[in-house]
Design goal:
With 499 residues, the chain is an alpha/beta fold. The protein is built from 14 helices and ten strands. The longest helix is centred in the middle third of the chain and has 40 residues, at 208-247. The chain is globular and about 75 Å long. Residues 1-37 and 480-494 have low confidence and may be disordered.
């Protein structure tokens, strides 16, 4: 929501499909349907024709959009349908995360729609700025609405269901978590409710809280070392930029601030995805032993962030991002959404920053203009007016966040009766912990929570989420013509098991 900066982009890219987004969870009753190593419930592709521009009365062009379905747990004919939203990445299947546990409990079918432009759901061959004008969250929400209607008709025909409407529930993590919340907000008649995991519903122009949370999550010792490393790198860039970039294996990054962004993102990833010790322990030990801090951090960046985690140097190179036919399309696509809708500019706070002060608003605006041309900038005020930001006036949306995740400050953390918000507190609780467990770097998407430093906390929040889903699905069944929402769903909705 992966899962907004390049770290968010790369990770979020990986998290939902690798993702950035594992052993079994015996304590939570998780039983894998296809063997202990499966990362996907299914990778079998399906396609349907999607409208290119939902807001034009005259443009009737269409494109092929990819989706997946998993029906092993589906209780015909009255089981619910879980719509798992894919985000800003290629969607290579339905991830085998904790959603599958919930689906089994409720006898649900699980379907997942690839986000327009990403992966194989590409309307255009060339990613020119003009061709990207149909890439937005608003278009994506209508994609989901159209798909929901298409798939309901398909399922009715496939199983010869005459009752018409199933009960639908929507799931998403990070950006797709925001889409999940926004879908319920804009199309309440099409879904019983929504899980918005680590949902970044607030568009933020100067997102200083992001860096501040990294400092809090790191703790005093690790934070001080990270700040010292930033200072040392800046000094080396001034005196011998080529050698310090070579040290980190990043000589291709000609722009110094692009390089500084890479180093900031590498640290972010450890906290965002629940693996802070992989970063902080060797750095603090090196400081105490008097070892070279830059060499220690370079080892982490090369072996962990660019190595096992799988981040790409190219996604930090503005010259590469300008390419309209890149091999890795996700970064250019996500930056377009960042530069036109949501910003999430992770700028350095004025005081006590970890990242370089050169990563400021002007850097981001210049990047947007350099990559996409003049006139491209994020109108965050309009985005927040349209969706409501953290004051979203929706209903039957459950928000979840990890305590160490810097993105939680763009989520809805204040709970209300019809939109409960749960904070999962532990040392390594990060982005999407309720669905993925921890740590997630290298990404583990099967939903294992036993390695969280407080697994009981994760279990408690998961149970609260399940109770909300059960309640809202049952209310769909009970809704009558005189209620605030139409009588949509007539089938039984209760859980089929408590295992």
């Amino acid at each position: 929501m992966r899962e907004m900066t390049r770290a968010f982009s790369v990770v979020f890219f990986l998290a939902l499909l690798l993702s950035l987004f594992s052993s079994s969870v015996e304590s939570l009753g998780f039983q894998r349907p296809h063997g202990a190593g499966d990362k996907y419930l299914t990778k079998e592709e399906h396609w349907f024709n999607q409208t290119l521009d939902h807001f034009s009365p005259t443009d009737h062009r269409q494109f092929q959009q990819r989706y997946y379905e998993f029906l092993d747990y589906y209780r015909v004919p009255d089981g619910p349908i879980f719509l798992r939203i894919c985000g800003e990445s290629s969607c290579n299947g339905i991830s085998n995360d904790y959603t599958s546990v919930i689906a089994k409990k409720f006898g649900a079918a699980v379907v997942s729609l690839e986000h327009r432009y990403y992966g194989k759901s590409a309307p255009f061959k060339y990613l020119t700025t003009n061709n990207l004008r149909f890439l937005s969250s608003k278009q994506a929400l209508f994609d989901l609405a159209v798909f929901r209607q298409y798939y309901q008709e398909y399922l009715n025909k496939h199983y010869n269901i005459s009752r018409g409407e199933s009960s639908w529930f929507v799931f998403g993590v990070s950006y797709s978590g925001a889409l999940s919340a926004w879908f319920r907000l804009k199309f309440p008649h099409l879904t019983c409710g929504s899980l918005a995991s680590s949902a970044v519903v607030l568009a933020v122009y100067n997102f200083t809280e992001f860096d501040k949370q990294i400092g809090e999550s790191a703790g005093a010792e690790c934070k001080a070392v990270l700040q010292e490393i930033t200072k040392l790198v800046e000094e080396r860039l001034h005196s011998d930029g080529r050698s310090v970039k070579n040290l980190f294996g990043a000589s291709m990054l000609r722009n110094d601030v692009d390089f500084l962004y890479l180093l900031a993102d590498a640290a972010v990833t450890a906290f965002q995805y629940g693996n802070p010790d992989a970063l902080c322990s060797p750095l603090v030990d090196a400081k105490k032993a008097g070892n070279d801090l830059l060499e220690t951090y370079a080892h982490f960046v090369k072996d962990y962030y660019l190595g096992s985690f799988g981040a790409s140097l190219q996604t930090y190179d503005q010259q590469y991002l300008k390419n309209t036919t890149p091999e890795e399309t996700d970064a250019r696509l996500w930056w377009f959404q960042v530069c036109t809708e949501v910003a999430y500019f992770q700028v350095a706070p004025q005081n006590d920053s970890i990242r370089s002060a050169k990563i400021d608003t002007r850097y981001h605006l210049d990047l947007c203009r350099n990559i996409f041309g003049e006139g491209i900038y994020p109108d965050v005020d309009m985005t927040n007016i349209y969706y409501g930001g953290t004051r979203i006036a929706g209903s039957k949306i459950v928000f979840t966040n990890g305590s160490q995740d810097p993105w939680r400050h763009a989520s809805k953390q204040k709970s209300s009766e019809d939109m409960p918000s749960y904070l999962i507190k532990c040392h390594n609780c990060g982005h999407g912990t309720d669905l993925r467990g921890c740590p997630q770097s290298p990404l583990i998407i099967e939903g294992d929570a036993k390695n969280c430093s407080s697994p009981e906390t994760v279990k408690k929040v998961r149970q609260q989420v399940i109770e909300q889903i059960d309640l809202w699905l049952s209310q769909c069944q009970d809704a009558g013509p005189g209620d605030d929402e139409p009588r949509l769903f007539l089938a039984g909705k209760r859980m089929v098991s408590s295992a």
